[in-house]
Amino acid sequence: YRLFFKKMKKIGYEGFFSYEQCGPVYVNHRMGTIEEVDRRAEIGLQNFTP
């Protein structure tokens, strides 16, 4: 993602980006909790931090 964001900045993009958790979340072959979804979203958010 870092290269993508660098290129978007280079061309002058100043709009919004979003992160989406697609599909069900599984941990050790079991349905993940909302805390796991939040944890993964936090990891994704790290790619959006300038």
Relevant terms:
mainly alpha; 50 residues; single chain; 42% helix; two-stranded antiparallel sheet; 2 strands; elongated
In brief, what are we looking at here?
The protein is mainly alpha-helical and 50 residues long.
Please, could you describe this protein's structure?
It is built from two helices and two strands, in the order H-E-E-H. The chain is mainly alpha-helical and 50 residues long. The chain has one domain. A two-stranded antiparallel sheet has the order 1-2. A hairpin with a 2-residue loop joins strand 1 and strand 2. The longest helix has 12 residues. The two termini are 12 Å apart. The mean pLDDT is 87.
* Major pleated sheet: 2 strands, antiparallel
Number of structural units classed as domains: 1
Radius of gyration: 14 Å
> Helices and strands: which structural class?
mainly alpha
- Quote the distance from N terminus to C terminus: 12 Å
Strand content: 5-15%
Using DSSP, what is the number of strands? 2
Question: What string gives the helices and strands in order?
Answer: HEEH
Secondary structure topology:
Elements: H1 2-10, E1 26-27, E2 30-31, H2 34-45
Antiparallel strand pairs: 1-2
Protein name: Sugar phosphate isomerase/epimerase
